[in-house]
Design brief:
The complex is a heterotetramer, with 2 copies of chain A and 2 copies of chain B. By secondary structure, chain A is α/β, with parallel strands linked by helices. Chain A is built from 7 helices and 13 strands. Chain A starts with a helix and ends in a 7-residue tail after the last helix. Chain B folds into 2 domains: about 260 residues, Glutaconate Coenzyme A-transferase, CATH 3.40.1080.10; about 35 residues, no CATH class. In chain B, the strands form 2 sheets. In chain B, strands 1, 2, 3, 4, 8, 9, 10, 11 and 12 form a 9-stranded mixed β-sheet that branches. Chain B has a 3-stranded antiparallel β-sheet with strand order 5-7-6, with helices on one face. The chains are: A alpha/beta, B alpha/beta. At the C-D interface, helix 3, strand 8 and helix 4 of C face strand 3, helix 5, helix 6, helix 7 and strand 7 of D.
């Protein structure tokens, strides 16, 4: 089955959720990935959305646009306040969080605040929303993002959401005792971080993607270990379920 | 007021005339309590339960020099910027919603330095309201640590006296005025909200003055029948106005879904014509309608009925 | 009309509530006083009870026994959590709080924790409950208590609820920026505190009570200004309303 | 665990097997998760929504060396003391209720030094649970300052870095186990409470293990119909047991009023016969009944029906 880059991204993110019981997800591809996982290999997964929804179900064709609208409350089991839902993560109840950003650097730091100098930005972006909180508080965090050179930069202009900061134990030293970015899931590859340096490393390539493709779309030097594996391509079942969720292909 | 100045904040509250009596009034009189230069906190979240009725009336009264704070700010932020009413926004996110991309109006105003943009993480901003609601100068948290949001805002780090670990302290945020749209209130200001609570409860307790619109004013017996549904007590509220469809075309949980076609048209106009388009929009939707009824008439009864049906389908 | 000491206490406490819009009250005499005030000169008074009730109505003959039982929720307008209801006081929303204690000293400090040494008490009392919070956080606090020598002691064995601590500006220095004990209402007199020293002072005697009566029932030296007035005795209307609330005289 | 040790508390939570699946079990199995020496936090308040079913089962299982914490502790505290099951109580108030005077059992146990009594103000204890629920080591407050409760507990003072004022910091209180009785829960542990929330929500989030009895187990569709009534999410709960009249003869808001005649008899016996009376009471009401049904039978159906009627009159 032919498939789009967004579909690869959603399928690969969904596969990361095996054995996960609770997930902090935003709208768009992350929520689609979560719904896909629920309908395939993670039936017990509880989806948590920062606008204040625990356990909602996605209505095919009526995908939510924001994290705090009624569509995200559909068949939810609880609707806590926003502050309280983040405190669940701070206390340690959330297994995994999905985040993204306009820029990501080699240590997994993300920027969704601004491009250019802090005081007089060239482009003022929307801002953190819950990204900073999710990356700071969930047990494990996965970055879910398209793989583009303008996005994968040597150093983010602004650290909205801290990955490993300057690498090594910098994150721990800043007081971030819990959680960490464990994976970067892109439409080209799965990446992780080298144990000591915390530099980004290719963990697996998606079918048909070469190391050169990944390098070409990354603005910094990636660690490339020997014998990188290749992920299974999206199956027909995965694609069928996914497309049934977004028949108008608003996100796919 | 300095960040976290809970002493000054409490003195203001104590100095304010307050009453346990009736607070029913008009949109005009309620909004008239906002002064130039005030910090106005906006309830709801993005396009959910935005108190648009009050916001439009504040613009009609031509306030200036405001600070607006809101957890996720939607196009009401653009209105205040375009109208020259706001100097500073305090938020964790500013846009209209993912499908509509970056806010062009916000970018122009912030990148040119006309409006200051103070960014906090979503939780940090929530905790700032919550600290204020509790009457304390700060709350400790593990969020924001290590990020550039620390230096951008006024958060501090401290060494925990119990554990020796590093904590982030976010200072309380005490708005002068809170604006809320709720599902139901009685004439004393006791408020009930269905569905998402967002940050409304904390905002109400954090502010010196609390202005509420309610989709429906309910009687004494009704509020007393379900006291466990009340989330804001009348003793913290200063004005209540009955405004059905008070957030329209934004959503109100269970009552009406947001009208995204309106958002599409709004953004398309701005994309095509820039600032001129937003002035035309304000003229038509904010300044021209003399009453809330005239405003609603611009959308038509059929659209409202459709959005109401849609809401019942989603969460009925 | 003849009347009991408890009735005088309730009537005198109720009279302190003229112009008060919100009151933090416990069960027993304080709640009866509040209900009496509501039915006479303070119809707009909002009663707040620490168990989590805002605006309840007292059912005649069915007076609540604890601050957190259903009887205190009768016809309430809101039932917040306990922590949240105290935070209303911390933020400054509560005009007046009523408190009591097993011991009170000349600076209005109250003890409801223990008699004897801290480490090995002779009598372990029930404890603060919300008394410490009410006296620390409400705008103004009134002590409502029977006037007995064993209760009015030179120094409390344990400061459960701080009045003016050692007197002068000791309260302010301890960090208690708001509120203060403004009155002590007893069945013999109304007392207040001298501006500078914060020592307890007789403000008015109840009808038929002499300065000597008050002195005899107080275990420390009270300030007795010149020309102390006398309060109006309980009126027939006050007593009638009060007795209708507690027909079995459980508290009266 | 040191006061406020949020790092250790979070590691315990992370180490615990957890699931989003079903959690329905028996009283016996649920109570079996309590270990000797555990700190057990008790939901409800005084004689309202006390999880008596779970508490009786823990006594039947002869646990020892427990710490009990509760905002206002009622006669269940006496039971654990008389049974020799508890070493330390953390509370703001201990008694049965004003009309019944001082607790004779508690006085004997505490004054003799057999049980340690740690006293906090009502708000301070609530904030300790709330700090733990939020995963932070402390919360700042203005209460307890200047009082002897500061030295008696482990609160600290600090100088506020934003304002220079003195604040009281109360350390987080992380129980090993929380016991709650709620109105309704689904099989995944999502809980709904009517009327008074007391401190149950914070206690549930503060504890490592959360054991819940529900007056009624409700179906999936029912919980999803009113998600805004859910106050504790299933993801924090470990065991759920259906126990109708789970707090009887204490009250459960809207369902049954407390049976004060039972309290009268209980206290009269202890007043007359001392410790012997409480052992007889435990034998009859705790150890003898093999099931919850046998326990309820001791009170009779008529009494339960009367108390249920009474509850509807009060808050129906």
């Amino acid at each position: 089955m032919n498939h789009s880059a967004a579909e690869v991204l959603a399928v690969m993110a969904a596969r990361q959720l095996r054995g996960v019981t609770s997930l902090f997800a935003g709208v768009g591809i992350p929520l689609l990935a979560a719904a896909l996982a629920q309908k395939t290999h993670a039936p017990d997964l509880t989806i948590v959305v920062e606008g204040g929804s625990i356990g909602p179900e996605v209505i095919p064709g009526r995908l939510p646009i924001s994290t705090n609208e009624m569509r995200v409350a559909h068949r939810a089991r609880m609707l806590p306040g926003i502050t309280d839902i983040f405190l669940l993560a701070q206390r340690g109840f959330l297994d995994v969080g999905f985040v993204g950003g306009a820029q990501i650097d080699r240590y997994g730091n993300l920027n969704s605040s601004l491009l250019g100098p802090h005081e007089r930005p060239k482009v003022r972006l929307p801002g953190s929303g819950g990204a900073n909180d999710i990356i700071s508080l969930c047990r494990r965090v996965m970055v879910v993002t398209m793989h583009e050179r303008r996005r994968f930069v040597p150093q983010v202009d602004f650290v909205t959401s801290p990955g490993f900061l300057g690498g090594g134990d910098a994150r721990r030293k800043a007081g971030l005792l819990f959680g960490r970015v464990s994976r970067v899931v892109t439409h080209l590859a799965i990446l992780d971080f080298e144990e000591d340096s915390k530099a980004m490393r290719v963990a697996a390539l998606h079918a048909g993607v070469t190391v050169a493709d990944v390098r070409d779309n990354t603005g910094f030097e990636l660690l490339i270990p020997e014998g990188i594996g290749t992920t299974e391509p999206p199956t027909e079942r995965e694609l069928t379920v996914l497309r049934s969720l977004d028949p108008d292909r608003r996100f796919l | 007021m300095n960040p976290g100045d809970f002493v000054e904040a409490r003195r203001r509250l104590e100095a304010k005339p307050h009453s346990a009596g009736e607070k029913l009034t008009t949109l005009e009189a309620a909004a008239g309590r906002v002064r130039d230069g005030d910090h106005v906190a906006i309830g709801g979240c993005l396009f959910s339960r935005t108190p648009l009725g009050l916001l439009r009336e504040i613009l009609r009264q031509r306030r200036r020099g405001l600070t607006l704070s809101r957890n996720l700010m939607c196009y009401e932020g653009e209105w205040f910027m375009a109208a020259g009413a706001v100097e500073r926004v305090v938020t964790s996110w500013f846009g209209i919603g993912l499908p509509w991309g970056l806010s062009r109006i916000m970018r122009e105003q912030v990148e040119s330095g006309r409006v200051r943009f103070e960014e906090w993480s979503h939780l940090a901003l929530g905790l700032r309201y919550r600290a204020a609601a509790a009457g304390v100068p700060f709350l400790p948290t593990l969020t924001m640590l290590g990020s550039d949001l620390m230096a951008a805002g006024q958060a501090q780090t401290m060494t925990c006296p119990f554990t020796g670990e590093t904590l982030c302290l976010v200072p309380a945020l005490f708005p002068d005025v809170a604006l809320l749209n709720v599902h139901r209130a009685d004439r004393f200001g006791n408020c009930q909200i269905d569905g998402y609570p967002h940050m409304d409860v904390d905002i109400a307790h954090a502010a010196t003055t609390v202005l509420v619109t309610a989709e429906e004013i309910i009687g004494d017996e009704e509020i007393r029948r379900h006291p466990d549904r009340t989330v804001i007590p009348g003793i913290v509220v200063d004005a209540v106005v009955e405004v059905p469809f008070g957030s329209y075309p934004h959503e109100c949980y269970g009552r009406y879904e947001a009208d995204f076609s309106h958002f599409d048209a709004y953004v398309a106009e701005i994309t095509a014509k820039g600032t001129e388009a937003i002035h035309a929009y304000l003229a038509r939707y904010v300044y021209a309608p003399r009453t809330h009824q005239e405003y609603l008439a611009l959308f038509g009864e059929e659209a409202r009925a459709r959005q109401a049906r849609s809401a019942r389908e989603l969460v009925g």
